[in-house]
Amino acid sequence: MGALPAAARAYIAGAVLAAALCAVPTVRDASAVPWGAVALLAGLCAVSERLPRCPLTMPVLLAGVFLLPPGAAGLVAVPGALLGRVGRRPVWVRRLWHAAQFSLAASAASYVHGLGTPPGAPPPPFPYALLPALAAALTLALVVTALDGGVLIAAEGRSPRAAWGAPLPGALVPPLLHGPTGLMTALLWHSAYGPVAALLVLLPMSVSSWVLDRCRRERAAHQATVRALVQAVDLKDRYTRGHSERVGRASVLIARELGITGDRLEAVRFAGTLHDVGKLGVPTRLLRKDGPLTPEERRVIELHPEFGHEMVRGIGFLGEARDAILHHHERLDGSGYPYGLIGHQIPEFARVVAVADAFDAMTSTRSYSRARPVPVALAELHRCSGSQFDPRMVAALSRALDRHGWCPASDRERSPEDIIPPSRNVPVDHRSPTGSPAAGFAHPGGPS
Questions:
Q1: Cα separation of 445 and 291, whole Å?
Q2: Which residues form the HD-GYP domain (predicted)?
Q3: 205, 261, 275, 391: most buried, per Cβ within 10 A?
Q4: Residue 280, exposed/middle/buried by CB under 10 A (0-12, 13-18, 19+)?
Q5: Which of 108, 133, 138 lies closest to 122 in space, CA to CA?
Q6: Last residue of a domain, which of 167, 200, 233?
């Protein structure tokens, strides 16, 4: 404990001593303790702590709270805490602290659960078991949070409000979430089916939690992939800084109005966020060119949808987003690119992203144009609907903005060269392959 402040060392030593004192009655009256149940539950806690992302620790600990007297319930937590994974040093001090902390919390929760119930008696039948189980789960959460806050105050000098107030809501979730599983385990333990059936309750819960964890990790990996691609585009083309995220957000607003939900809604978000990923294949000198583009240079920049589609072709989770990346510069009248698709030949997500892209370009300040007010941008979209944009998508964006509003690009999202003083009159660049006014809200060297 040499690296810890003296106050923290004293606090941890006091917690360990208190946990040991709670266990004294159990050791003194060993004959009255169901040591087989203690050993089985403690072993399950230890195994759960050693397995990565295994969700059994809390329901097993709560089952011990509901089944055992206070001192024995406190012992259930000790092996798992001493064998658990610790990411920071000093490792053994932290393990000892967690053992004392959860032992005290389990003892207190078992005491609260046993109020009004004879020692060693089985839990009351359902639904009468719910109220004492809820009180015990809340006690466990409160004691853990109180002890955690105390060690943060002693070791790091945090204020009581920061140490206790902020973590409390989150600390209540795991015991309350896993309480029903622990209660079911305890009720079956004393049933005719015995401990084996009780432990089988934990199996489906473990499998389902493992599957949910895998889904969360996969989703996090998807989002990390998208963020990395967007950051790469933003670093290469300063004119799109923050643009991709806003187009993703506007695309979701439109999609929700169209009744798109679930995985398809997530695909719309990916489509809007990654619509310009193909700019990674465009020479930087063209993206940052301030003067007019030659026809050859414009043709190179107009390849960015195809570049983007090739880049994401093998990313399976993008789904329909891949077609949106390829076709978001198509126009209903067939004058767009890369393939000059007409009307409903253009994929639905591409029509969504086209509107979101143009809207954000018009409402964002850039080095060559000032942001237009949202009503002006919407009027421009309506004017070009039917020829350039799908009227359904424009109407959906209008309804969404009426309901949710819109926060355009802030100064924090712009580099210094992107901020235009209000007094400076910068003309809008209207250059585009078709001369459409809405298409002109783009980088002066090419399409946005």
A1: 7
A2: 218-413
A3: 275
A4: middle
A5: 133
A6: 200
* pTM for the model: 0.55
Q: Which of 137, 170, 200 is the last residue of a domain?
A: 200
**Do 178 and 241 belong together in one domain?**
no
Q: Count Cβ atoms below 10 Å from residue 86 Cβ, excluding itself.
A: 14
Q: What is each CA distance from 189 to 51, 63, 66, 192, 291, in whole angstroms?
A: 24, 9, 10, 8, 79
The verdict on 145 and 238 lying in the same domain is no
43, with CB counted inside 10 A (0-12, 13-18, 19+), is middle
Tokens 């355009």 label which residue? 408
Residue 107, domain extent: 6-200
DSSP state of 162: I
Residue 303 corresponds to which amino acid? Answer: L
Q: Which residue has the tokens 């409160």?
A: 142
CATH number at residue 18: 1.10.1760
Residues 61, 187 share a domain: yes
Q: Which amino acid is at 330?
A: E
The predicted pLDDT at position 422 comes to 30
Rounded distance, CA 115 to CA 24, Å? 20
The pLDDT tens digits for 157-171 are 888 888 787 677 777
SS3 state of residue 213: helix
**Range from 235-249, 340-354, 363-377 that averages highest in pLDDT:** 340-354
Distance in angstroms (rounded) separating the CA atoms of residues 240 and 279: 10
Enumerate residues 6+ apart whose C-beta is below 8 A from 97. 12, 15, 16, 151
Q: Are 308 and 326 in contact (CB under 8 A)?
A: yes
Radius of gyration of the chain (CA): 31
CA distance 420 to 73: 66
**Residue where the block lists tokens 């969404």:** 400
CB 372, CB 378: distance < 8 Å: no
Identify which of 293, 292, 336 has the alpha carbon closest to the alpha carbon of residue 435.
336
Question: Exposed, middle or buried, 347 (CB in 10 Å: 0-12/13-18/19+)?
Answer: buried
How many structural domains comprise the chain? 2
pLDDT at 385: 93
Residues in the chain: 448
